[in-house]
Design brief:
The structure holds two protein chains of two kinds. Chain A contains twelve helices and eleven strands. In chain A, strands 1-3-2-4-6-5-10-11-9-7-8 form an eleven-stranded mixed sheet, sandwiched between helices. In chain A, helix 1 links the parallel strand 2 and strand 3. In chain A, helix 2 packs parallel to helix 3, helix 6 crosses helix 8 and helix 6 packs across helix 9. The N terminus of chain A is likely disordered. By secondary structure, chain B is mainly alpha-helical. Helices cover 34% and strands 4% of the residues of chain B. Chain B has a two-stranded antiparallel ribbon with strand order 1-2. In chain B, strand 1 and strand 2 form a beta hairpin. In chain B, helix 1 packs across helix 2. The two termini of chain B are 28 Å apart. The N terminus of chain B is likely disordered. Classes of the chains: A alpha/beta, B mainly alpha. At the A-B interface, helix 6, helix 7, helix 8, helix 9 and helix 10 of A face helix 1 and helix 2 of B.
């Protein structure tokens, strides 16, 4: 290659979108592959053999995986060139990419503002043209949130569509790897490459359950499509966001879609349920970080409990510690029924509410985020305020459904994303509707 | 244990931190106690959730136990801060 296109473009203030810049792939003989000639940025919680994978954490600052995630294998087999590992909220815990051990990422649209999170580096890289495409991960909105804040497209696939083999787990019953791209069609192209069953991830669905193509669904033809607007999620949203959202819904109607308004009562409890379940799973998934097989060592003084506690105190940032402790508390004797059991009931209720809504609607719609992108530093003092920003995205993860965030316009020169939610394995329906919003 | 639902004191935070093997300092214990009180208060909304009959779609994904390629010993040890003669080396048990 004549130029080193892994370096930050000259003249641009570095957005800090990348933790590690490194070229990986493409595999030999893939010049005609579906991603030939394209560059992809990969979120730093996805394992890349021989290239450090930090999860945005001091705990894994020097961790080099001995194997590739399945999605990485599929990217390079499709002819893509991976250009680096992107910055993220530590272990995926956050919505602004400000909890990263490696400093925050800036939003290319307004560098004084956050790019969203936790896949902020991936979204910023695509928005700034530092990569053609990117992979992110979404546990409670972490693909859709930064896609919305950076003005690009992001898809959280149906749970079980994309293999999690090689994804460092935060909340394994909620998360999926998914594409971030400048357009709906390009996101669909990337999704086609990474989706599909994997015998190394027993939660992936077999081929007969899932669509075999996505790109041809991006035709913008919504005549006869019923779109259910979730009024429950409009309450409390910034009115500038709502205005852009409603205008985009009117455009869908003008393109032939039928609009209905729906209320989903269970969604009022979704955020609490999400934070109980996600933190509970996190407390288990992050128990492996004790400084013995990998990570920051705790030293030889004291017994193993003291050593492990020291390693974890040093290696984890505040938000990670907060969530591990909350999850431990929610699962502990005496509190398990009050928090964890009730959260599972809420999850079942959310699933049922969505299933009922899809009896009458083809896709559901809401703003992706209830607010415009905040300024850097604004969100750090009050954890609960940060969690409330996830209100529109977390219900989708609880229900294991697919959702896409597509740019719907701007308010005060800042991007506003429209979220479309589909039934299980209904990616084609949301791609179709999203491509109509795009035009 | 505190009596009031949703309120958390420093002792409880220390207990949970002990369970989770995280050595918090005093400032963190105090900060977390205040933050948890607020967050757990928010979680009270779960009390209003009715009991739902979940309809799980469970599929048996067990497979035959067949030996396949795996990491070799040096690959498995490569990220360990300390190892000795092919073993992970860790702190003493007690």
């Amino acid at each position: 290659m004549a130029t080193d296109d892994t370096a930050a473009p000259e003249g641009r203030t570095d957005l800090n979108a990348f933790v590690t810049r490194e070229r990986i792939g493409p595999a030999e003989g893939t010049e005609d592959g579906p991603l030939a000639g394209r560059t992809v940025a990969v979120k730093d919680n996805i394992s890349t053999e021989g290239t450090r994978t930090t999860c945005g954490s001091a705990m894994l600052a020097d961790y080099v995986p001995p194997y590739d995630a399945t999605v990485v294998e599929r990217l390079i087999a499709a002819g893509a060139t991976i250009v680096g590992k992107t910055n993220m909220d530590e272990f995926g815990m956050g919505g602004t990419t400000e909890t990263s051990n490696f400093g925050p990422t800036r939003n290319p649209v307004d560098p004084e503002r956050v790019p969203g999170g936790s896949s902020g580096g991936s979204a910023a890289a695509v928005a700034a043209g530092e990569a053609d495409l990117a992979l992110g991960t979404d546990t409670g909105g972490s693909i859709r949130n930064p896609a919305s804040f950076c003005g690009v497209v992001g898809i959280k696939p149906t749970y079980g569509l994309v293999s999690r083999y090689g994804l460092v787990a935060y909340a394994n019953s909620l998360e999926q790897i998914g594409p971030i791209a400048p357009t709906v069609r390009e996101a669909a192209e990337l999704l086609e490459v990474v989706a599909g069953p994997d015998e190394r991830d027993a939660t992936t669905h077999p081929a007969e359950d899932v669509p075999d193509s996505f790109v041809d669904a991006c035709d913008g033809d919504v005549s006869g499509t019923t779109v259910g607007v979730i009024d429950t999620l409009l309450e409390g949203a910034d009115e500038r966001v709502v205005e852009v959202f409603e205008d985009a819904v009117d455009d869908l109607a003008a393109a032939g879609a039928e609009i209905e308004r729906v209320e989903l009562e269970s969604l009022d409890h979704a955020l609490a349920a999400y934070y109980v379940i996600a933190t509970s799973e996190a407390s288990s998934n992050l128990a492996r970080f004790d400084g013995v097989r990998y990570g920051v060592p705790g030293g030889d003084e004291g017994n193993w409990n003291e050593s492990f506690a020291g390693a974890r105190e040093e290696g984890f940032g505040a938000e990670v510690k907060r969530r591990i402790l909350l999850g431990t508390y929610a699962l502990s004797a005496g509190y398990h029924d009050k928090y964890y059991r009730k959260a599972q009931d809420a999850r079942a209720w959310v699933k049922r509410d969505f299933a009922d809504a899809f009896a009458d609607a083809d896709v559901l719609a809401s703003p992706t985020m209830p607010v415009l992108p905040p300024k850097l530093g604004e969100s750090l003092d009050d954890p609960l305020q940060l969690y409330l920003m996830d209100a529109d995205t977390v219900p989708v993860n609880l229900a294991n459904l697919p959702a896409i965030s597509v740019p719907a316009g701007e308010a005060d020169d800042l991007p506003v994303g429209l979220q479309l939610i589909g039934p299980k394995f209904g990616e084609r329906a949301i791609l179709r509707a999203a491509s109509a919003v795009e035009t | 244990m505190s009596e009031t639902p949703g309120s958390v004191d420093g002792e409880e935070v220390r207990h949970v931190a002990d369970l989770a093997r995280v050595a918090l300092d005093d400032a963190e214990v105090e900060e977390f106690a205040a933050q948890f009180a607020e967050i757990l208060d928010y979680f009270e909304t779960l009390d209003e959730v009715p009991e739902i009959e979940a309809e799980p779609e469970l599929v048996n994904v067990m497979r035959a136990d067949e030996v396949d390629d795996c990491l070799d010993q040096s690959e498995a040890l490569a990220n360990a801060p300390e190892s000795e003669e092919g073993y992970f080396k860790g702190p003493k048990v007690s």
